[in-house]
């Protein structure tokens, strides 16, 4: 990885350290409430993941661990990893307060094999806003392969690159129509953001507001995993999100949100095995 990319990832790490207190206090995450961690999962995710009791599960780029706890609830021996020290501290406290034995490790995802002492897992889970912070998916896929036991499974649940290419808000003077504003495919370099507010409610982020994101099309993700020796088992595309990204989205029977029209993929789930 180039020096420039390492600098950008350090900026992202500082940004997520700064985001953490805002997210902890937000209604979006509802840490102080009685919310069920499973609310962040679609029903089809559990169908694809299968039985987790007694399994070793690793959640990469876990942030506050709001999803990580759901694996422990299902009887898995659970580890979460994130590059933000503030997030790892917060996640450890959240799990302990909820009475779950989850181990959290602070490390860059590219250093996960060494940070976890070479431990192998039955399931590696990642997603919902994680891959966009990684500049090199081939290297990431190699790390995942090194974290899985033979027969182990990777499950990626990510925002669809079509969603990422649609602007979240109309530009001044434009109507509410959804327009393609960003690249679908990678290769054009990182998108630099300098934002004082994050995707949650709450006050402005203090300090490190710079962040960098990389676009990754579905083909790039799939080919990176194949190149690392993993077998693709299933690919799903879903029209629903766990929160309303646009005001005109409607809530379905699942409790998640979709566009009334057009029917486009907003999330995808990819199951692969070693």
From TrEMBL:
Keywords: Methyltransferase, Transferase. Residues 58-154 form the Methyltransferase type domain. Signal peptide: none annotated. InterPro entries: Methyltransf_12 (IPR013217), SAM-dependent_MTases_sf (IPR029063). It comes from Streptomyces rugosispiralis. Gene3D superfamilies: Vaccinia Virus protein VP39 (3.40.50.150). This is Class I SAM-dependent methyltransferase. It comes from the Bacteria. GO terms for biological process: methylation. GO terms for molecular function: methyltransferase activity. Pfam families: Methyltransf_12.
